[in-house]
Amino acid sequence: MPPPKDVVKIAIQMVGAIPQLIELQQTKPLASVLKDVCDVWSLPNAEHYALQYVDGRQTYITESNRGEIKNGSILRLTTSPDQEAERLYSGIQSNNSDVKTDSLKKLASLSQDVTFAQEFINRNGLKQIFYIVEEGNDTGEMLAHTLKAFMELMEHDFVSWETLSAAFIKKIVSYVNMNAVDASVQQLSLSILENMVPTSRLLFELVKKEVTLDRLLTHLQVTNAQLQLKAMALLIALLLAATDAERREMMDYLREKNIRQFIHKHIIHSSEPLGDEMAHYLYVLQSVSLNLCERRMRTSMDPYSQEQRELLQSLRQTAFESETDGPASNFSTERRRSLCAKEFRKLGFMNNSNPAEDLRRAPPGLLALDNMVYFSRHTPNAYSRFVLENSSREDKHECPFARSSIQLTLILCEILHVGEPCSETAQAFYPMFFGQDHFFEELFCICIQLVNKTWKEMRATQEDFDKVLQVVREQITRTLSLKPTSLELFKTRVNALNYSEILKLRQTERLHQEETLAVPVLELRERLKPELLELIRQQRLLHLCEGTLFRKISSRRRQDKLWYCRLSPNHKVLHYGDVEEGVNSPPIESLPEKIPVADMKMLLVGKECPHTKEKSSGKQNKDVLELAFSVVYDVEEYCLNFIAPTRYEFCLWTDGLNVLLGKEMTSERTQTDLDVLLSMELKLRLLDLENISIPDTPPPIPKPPSNLNFCYDFTHAEQ
User: Fold this and answer.
1) Are β-strands 49-53 and 561-567 bridged in parallel, bridged antiparallel, or unpaired?
2) In 3-state terms, what secondary structure has residue 713?
3) What residues contact 11, with CB distance under 8 A and at least 6 apart?
4) Residue 271 pLDDT exceeds 90
5) DSSP 3-state assignment of 224?
6) Angle, helix 465-480 to helix 439-458, in steps of 10 degrees
7) Average pLDDT, rounded, for the chain
8) Are 432 and 490 spatial neighbours (Cβ–Cβ below 8 Å)?
9) pLDDT in tens, 28-52
10) Is the pLDDT of residue 61 over 70?
């Protein structure tokens, strides 16, 4: 007979004593449980003791978290959090450096526990930490433990970052700006500043003033990958907290210092593999940089702006300056206006008498004008060739440069997500972005020439404008999906993907679709589905057995806490636990926490998850909602909360958990995988029917013969 749900069987250890095996009554007060345990070992003052997990983060057991204790858990009888906090508070004030260092080391470890942290902070422990940092001259191990303890204590959000003293902040800044400092101290100092920056405008301005961009660039150039990562994290935090004007100024300065080329050469193409966190920071840097175009993209052209009119006129003059030299100056105003209108028509403006009207639509707004001017100034030969070549064509077949440029700019903005907020978890960046200054403009220069090339290949007329741009969009997206490492490689590949190649790809896809829509094939698909769905289920469970590294995102959007979760090979237990950076696939024995699959009740996704309800709503958290899921387990309905690193992982985990719960797999990835497997299986089965049309209905069964005398009699043959 199974034990009642409010009783768990556990082991309790103590140094120098024989472990106790007890049945813990969850309804019994914890103080009474501790007294019983202490009585067995003849220990007085039970209130000075506490229970603590042996494995994992060694969390203290309290009335609020005792419900998480599972059958088979191993606990340790140890000094209570208040006694330990008092002891360490005295220890860090010791004049003996060894005692002080050991106390700070233990403090850094125990501060991860919320119960201990609260006890230590209640004793004004943070004030003593401030004193050690502000008054001390140590820059080695002792300081590293002090800063680590401070970080862990602040992580619990008991104290606001805005309460930090100016002297403490200046000391932290000095560690970042000094050269002769231990690398671990600099890493922790950078992390502290990174946490401070988003909390208030005052702290942002202070850090921005004290830690120069030059200093951060120096840290980015070191060989220590962790120091490099923390410097990048602080740089990103400063960029995200800055105003638009400040961000533009910072990005301009970074461009002057060739940060893109450095990142391209020493981070993206370094010998060390790129970590998830660095990939995320590079994505954010790319997103922030591209979003600098947003203001121009959302600004319509002002026909009364002298500067904008001059830019517009420069397009005409660059293309037709040789034609308008000399005699044009003698033309009357009316004749000159007529000539200008004709030239703007040749340039491809729809409203040739007032071309500014074409640029009133926002987006793409003035960004389209900027791109056209950049193209005309930086590649004048290609620009003149584009315009003059189309001026000499028949009216119906000329490719309108201006109209194409406006639409192409809009397409590029959509593909590159210009103007969209940064995702909190995305890691998808384009390596070629960091290999080129003026990336957006240079990409436009390649793609506008692609428009002209595709226009000629399609032998398009004005009526085909939308079709041509649709093909160009497809050429660009297909090429970007290959993640070319440079713009030159992008140019080579996108030009190789000509209109005939696009047609072949479309035809292949269309034939495949038509082939699979025949009635007999649809019936075969339905017969194959159960077998292939079972294959997908097995793959999902296998992926859960391999496990995945997840990140914890706190209220300040920090992502440096890692934990791993995997399913046991027998599919009966979900194992999970915290891990260190760099651990890719920890053994299942090293994951202390367990959830029996039998105790799992339901799966929650998106807005239904408790950890997404705690967060503020808004665009910034949209990506988190798309990646969040929770497992509800046990009678008390506890939740294990996840935020998947990618949408792919989200789909595989939610599918796998649904399989364990005996439910249908509902992710979009299931349908994609099923379609791929069905397609492959159908192609294999229909190989012999290639070029043979499959009838919609089976051929009629012939009538039975009038007699069956056609059967051969073997007995006569043997005689």
Assistant:
1) unpaired
2) coil
3) 19, 20, 21, 22, 73, 74, 75
4) no
5) coil
6) 130
7) 87
8) yes
9) 999 999 999 999 999 999 999 999 9
10) yes
Residue 325 above 60 pLDDT?
Answer: no
For residues 493 and 477, give the distance between their C-alpha atoms in angstroms, rounded to a whole number: 12
pLDDT of residue 617: 47
Distance CA(688)–CA(676), nearest Å, equals: 20
Q: In terms of Cα–Cα distance, which of 646, 599, 604, 663 is closest to 629?
A: 604
- Longest Cα–Cα distance of the chain, Å, equals 119
Residues paired with 614 in a beta bridge:
none
pLDDT at 323 over 60: no
Mapped onto helix, strand or coil, the DSSP state of residue 80 is: coil
DSSP code string of 411-430: HHHHHTTTTPPPPSS-----
Find tokens 């769905």 and name the residue: 533
Question: Long-range contacts for 266-272 (Cβ within 8 Å, ≥24 apart)?
Answer: 266/221, 267/220, 267/228, 268/431, 268/434, 269/485, 272/225
R_g of the chain computed on alpha carbons:
34
CA distance 37 to 11: 11
Q: What's the CA angle centered on 441, arms 439 and 447, to 5 degrees?
A: 100
- Determine the Cα–Cα distance for residues 688 and 672; give it in Å rounded to an integer: 26
- Whether 180 shows a pLDDT value over 90: the answer reads no
> For residue 567, what are the β-bridge partners?
574
- Helix (H) / strand (E) element for 566: namely strand 561-567
Check residue 525 and give its pLDDT: 83
Percent of the chain with pLDDT over 70: 91
pLDDT confidence tier of residue 331, bands split at 50, 70 and 90: low
Cβ neighbors of 443 (< 8 A, separation 6 or more) are 412, 487, 490
pLDDT digits (tens, 9 = 90+) for 411-421: 999 999 999 98
C-alpha–C-alpha distance, residues 682 and 702, integer Å: 28
Question: Distance between CA atoms of 390 and 451, rounded to whole angstroms?
Answer: 12
Strand partners, 578: 563
Burial class (CB in 10 A: 0-12, 13-18, 19+), 1: exposed
The Cα-based distances of 113 to 58, 194, 325, 590 in angstroms read: 8, 22, 80, 19
CA distance 552 to 582: 15
Provide the β-strand partners of residue 8.
24
Q: With beta carbons less than 8 A apart as the criterion, state whether 586 and 548 touch.
A: no
**pLDDT 10s digits, 444-474:** 999 999 999 999 999 998 899 999 999 999 9
* pLDDT range class, residue 428, cuts 50, 70, 90: confident
Ranked by mean pLDDT, the top range of 304-318, 514-528, 701-715 is: 304-318
The pLDDT, as a whole number, for residue 690 is 66
- What are 552's two structure tokens? 């914890």
Mapping DSSP to helix (H, G, I), strand (E, B) and coil, where does residue 560 land?
A: coil
How far apart are alpha carbons 435 and 450 in whole angstroms? 21
Confidence of residue 517 (pLDDT cuts 50, 70, 90): low
Q: What is the pLDDT of residue 332?
A: 65
649 vs 475: CA distance, rounded Å: 28
Domains of the chain (ranges, CATH numbers): 7-79 (3.10.20.90), 83-287 (1.25.10.10), 298-321+335-509 (no CATH), 530-672 (2.30.29.30)
What ranges in 421-518 are assigned the alpha helix state H? Answer: 439-458, 465-480, 487-496, 499-515
How many CB atoms within 10 Å of residue 218? 13
Cα distances from 654 to residues 389, 436, 482, 577, 717, in angstroms, run 56, 39, 28, 19, 69
Spatial separation of the C-alpha atoms in residues 625 and 639, rounded to whole Å: 16
Are the C-beta atoms of 196 and 186 separated by less than 8 Å? Answer: no
How many Å apart are CA 24 and CA 47, to the nearest integer?
Answer: 18
